[in-house]
Amino acid sequence: MDSLKGLLQNKLLIYNIFAGVFYVMGEAGTMTFSMKYMEIQYHTSAAGASMISGSASVFAMIFGFLGSGYFIGRFKPRPRLVLGWNVILGAVHVIGSIIYIYLGCQDKGVYGLDPVTG
């Protein structure tokens, strides 16, 4: 019970947990519909979109967990440096998400369908 009390009184840990919860809540919609978005935006099949989105997500998570675990274990940075790094990566993520909205393939339409006459 004393160890749980000690963890709950660790402000850095509690703030980090809250930040993770809010990040996941904010990204839940994007994670849920990213495959459907890719399917529509890039004119690909559902299977193709899930293969691209799923494999990229898994490899990014593996690389992130292993890389951050190695870096923190090897260099033992101060909490302020880790916080700054998280803020920088959060800003890069937001900028990347905004850029991702504008990427896409040109719509060639449906062969034989005249949009003017229907």
From TrEMBL:
It comes from the Eukaryota. Keywords: Disulfide bond, Membrane, Transmembrane, Transmembrane helix. It holds the Pfam family OATP. The chain crosses the membrane at residues 12-35, 47-71, 83-103. Coiled coil: none annotated. InterPro entries: MFS_trans_sf, OATP. PANTHER family: ORGANIC ANION TRANSPORTER, SOLUTE CARRIER ORGANIC ANION TRANSPORTER FAMILY MEMBER. This is Major facilitator superfamily (MFS) profile domain-containing protein.
